[in-house]
């Protein structure tokens, strides 16, 4: 028996697993992409489409990955190799994803951490200067690296304390705190004059805006938001006891992810209406420009004292979301090394930390020392390349291979038996159809659309 088997971690119970899965799923994408897409694509129409996709396609893949992990008791490479050495390559591809994402995710986590403190030290006016503050910070040869390191150290300390003593405890504090802060901000913002117009714009469906583009955007957002096809849910499933109901657990993870996404939109879209009288500022920008350029201007318009409090709380909750997602990436990487090499948890964790830090420095150089290297065309960075390879290429490929593997090679019955260990699975027929026929097509749509978008064939 290898040391990795002896030291295999486990959740204290079903709700620890649900909270961990939700904490992994709830991340930066919920905060800076979901509100943008909802504002762009008819508000409630997008939300309704997203909701349907989460509880069909999304929960199907979540259930598959968690059941695969629990059935084998291993992280991604071991889980696939369990059914034959020739299938290990699927696990290798899945395992590559967190190793690519964790370093650049930590860089963005550093940006969020910097802004959280900057609202208290620099003040909201300094941050609402149209992007100069942000640009000078991320291109700094010192400061951007320092804040990346601060973010990484926080994550490393939590994961270093173990699954029970670190990840579970942190999630138990951060996830409820994130929800409470989000609800408090929503209540305050929607009570401001003019905010209800933003609420209506955000929540009331405009069916005229429904389009193939909306559907593909909702599909992609859901896929990337739920921590699918990156080995995380296989690893987290491998820590789950046999008594816990998998369908109930994954439905709750989907609910958490959807709920936080909707709350993020209820903060951001009405705030834009209060500041600018429309949601166009949100609908025009996603990602870092929405988070670090547009929103500070929106908060600043509320007055200096209000902006300080709202800006600090908003970025603190985003920091919590980033930390909990980064924890799942680091834990998955540690588990993969443990299972793959038979190393102790301590040794595997040390390798993970060193790798993440060194790669983080390299990717961060793309904003200063290596800014001349623009791998995806003018204005692109090394971070953009890593994001494109992991999100648009590897993750859809891993998802398709996983679905074909379960649907056509080991057969859905293999995992249905695992799911039914803890509770009857009434939707097994529908789930099998989704795994074998519908989900693979939808994942291929995501890959074609997002790779095409990168090269200007489609626009999202």
Which descriptors apply to this entry?
460 residues, 22 helices, mainly alpha
- How many strand elements? 0
Query: Could you say which overall geometry the principal axes of the C-alpha atoms support?
Result: globular
For the largest beta-sheet, the strand count, sense and barrel status come to: none
| Integer-rounded radius of gyration | 21 Å
Q: How many distinct helices?
A: 22
Question: Averaged pLDDT, please?
Answer: 94
Give the fraction of residues assigned to helices.
over 70%
Cα distance, first to last residue?
Answer: 50 Å
| pLDDT < 50 runs, ≥5 residues | 1-6
Structural class: mainly alpha
- The share of residues in extended strands comes to under 5%
Instruction: Provide the succession of SSEs.
Output: HHHHHHHHHHHHHHHHHHHHHH
Fold blueprint:
Elements: H1 3-6, H2 14-25, H3 28-32, H4 34-40, H5 44-72, H6 76-81, H7 88-121, H8 124-127, H9 132-138, H10 143-160, H11 163-190, H12 195-203, H13 212-225, H14 232-238, H15 246-276, H16 280-284, H17 287-300, H18 304-341, H19 345-364, H20 382-409, H21 412-419, H22 428-454
Helix pairs in contact: 2-11, 2-14, 2-15, 2-18, 4-15, 5-13, 5-14, 5-15, 5-21, 5-22, 7-10, 7-18, 7-19, 7-20, 10-11, 10-18, 10-19, 11-15, 11-18, 12-15, 13-22, 15-17, 18-19, 20-22
How would you describe this structure to a colleague?
This protein is an all-alpha fold. It contains 22 helices and no strands. Helix 7 (88-121) crosses helix 20, helix 10 (143-160) packs antiparallel against helix 19 (345-364) and helix 20 packs antiparallel against helix 22. The longest helix is centred in the C-terminal third of the chain and has 38 residues, at 304-341. It is globular. The model is unreliable at 1-6 (pLDDT under 50).
């Amino acid at each position: 028996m290898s040391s990795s088997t002896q030291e295999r971690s486990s959740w204290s119970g079903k709700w620890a697993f649900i909270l961990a899965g939700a904490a992994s799923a709830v991340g930066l994408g919920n905060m800076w992409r979901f509100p943008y897409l909802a504002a762009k694509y008819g508000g409630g129409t997008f939300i309704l489409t997203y909701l349907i996709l989460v509880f069909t396609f999304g929960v199907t893949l979540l259930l598959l990955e968690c059941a695969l992990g629990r059935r084998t008791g291993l992280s991604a490479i071991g889980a696939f190799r369990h059914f034959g050495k020739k299938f290990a390559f699927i696990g290798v591809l899945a395992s590559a994803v967190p190793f690519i994402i964790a370093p650049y995710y930590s860089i963005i986590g550093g940006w969020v951490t910097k802004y959280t403190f900057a609202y208290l030290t620099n003040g909201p006016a300094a941050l609402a200067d149209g992007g100069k503050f942000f640009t000078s910070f991320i291109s700094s040869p010192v400061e951007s690296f320092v804040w990346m390191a601060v973010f990484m150290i926080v994550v490393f300390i939590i994961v270093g304390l173990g699954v029970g003593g670190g990840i579970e405890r942190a999630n138990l504090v951060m996830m409820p705190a994130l929800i409470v802060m989000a609800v408090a901000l929503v209540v305050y913002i929607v009570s401001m004059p003019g905010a209800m117009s933003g609420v209506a714009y955000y929540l009331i469906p405009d069916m005229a805006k429904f389009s193939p583009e909306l559907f593909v955007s909702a599909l992609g957002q859901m896929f990337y938001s739920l921590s699918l096809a990156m080995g995380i849910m296989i690893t987290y499933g491998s820590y789950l006891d046999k008594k816990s109901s998998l369908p109930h657990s994954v439905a709750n993870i989907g609910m958490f992810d959807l709920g936080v996404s909707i709350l993020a939109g209820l903060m951001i879209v009405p705030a834009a209406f209060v500041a600018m009288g429309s949601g166009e500022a949100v609908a025009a920008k996603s990602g870092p420009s929405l988070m670090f350029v547009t929103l500070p201007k929106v908060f600043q318009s509320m007055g200096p004292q209000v902006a300080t409090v709202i800006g600090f709380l908003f970025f603190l909750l985003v920091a919590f979301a980033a930390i909990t997602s980064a924890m799942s990436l680091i834990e998955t990487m540690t588990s993969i090394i443990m299972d793959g090499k038979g190393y102790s948890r301590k040794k595997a964790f040390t390798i993970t930390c060193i790798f993440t830090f060194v790669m983080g420095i390299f990717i961060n150089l793309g904003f200063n020392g290596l800014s001349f290297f623009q791998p995806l065309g003018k204005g692109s960075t090394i971070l953009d390349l890593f994001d494109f390879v992991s999100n648009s290429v590897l993750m859809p490929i891993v998802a398709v291979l996983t679905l074909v593997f379960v649907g056509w090679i080991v057969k859905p019955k293999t995992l249905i038996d695992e799911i039914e260990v803890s509770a009857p699975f009434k939707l097994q027929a529908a789930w099998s159809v989704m795994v074998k026929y519908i989900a693979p097509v939808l994942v291929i749509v995501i890959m074609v659309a997002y790779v095409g978008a990168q090269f200007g064939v489609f626009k999202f």
